[in-house]
Amino acid sequence: MTNRIIWMVISAGLTLFLMRAMSADVSYAAFDVVTLTIISGLFLVLYVRLSQQPLRIGELAAKRGLLTHKESQRILECQVNCADKFGEIAVRENYITETQLERLLTEAGAS
Fold first, then answer.
1. Whole-angstrom Cα distance, residue 83 to residue 47?
2. Phi/psi class of residue 67: alpha, beta or left (left: φ > 0; alpha: ψ in -120 to 50)?
3. Is pTM, for the whole model, over 0.85?
4. Would you state the torsion angle of the CA atoms of residues 73, 103, 49, 83, taken in this order, to the nearest 10 degrees?
5. What is the pLDDT of residues 25-61, one digit of tens each?
6. CA distances from 51 to 44, 65, 93, 95, 96 (A)
């Protein structure tokens, strides 16, 4: 399931739950418990997925203090005009070294 589908299911479930809660019909109590359990489970799945997504090289380099915001913006502007990857441009423009790029790629899980 993609994150977008998970968000749609969560939204639909919450909407249904709120509609049932506003009607104050006790006969739906078991259904509401199941709905809340499913919604909670989907929130957990989404949280785990989002927390495990690797950082992009630029974000990781900035986090490590290798690039400034201004340097990252220059690289992104450069990327608009060419098909090179962020790391390739950063090395070519002498913002970071090949070794630093390799470490960033390893850390990001992209190598």
1. 32
2. beta
3. no
4. 40
5. 555 666 667 777 877 888 788 777 776 666 688 888 9
6. 10, 22, 31, 28, 27
Any residues with CB less than 8 A from the CB of 67 and at least 6 apart, and which?
58, 61, 75, 90, 95, 96
CA gap 62, 91 in Å, rounded: 14
Count of alpha carbons within 13 Å of 95, Cβ hemisphere only?
A: 24
Q: Are 25 and 32 in contact (CB under 8 A)?
A: no
What separation, in Å, do the N-terminal and C-terminal C-alpha atoms of the chain show?
25
Q: Which of 66, 79, 74 is nearest to 107 (CA)?
A: 66
Q: Is 59 exposed, middle or buried (0-12, 13-18, 19+ CB in 10 A)?
A: middle
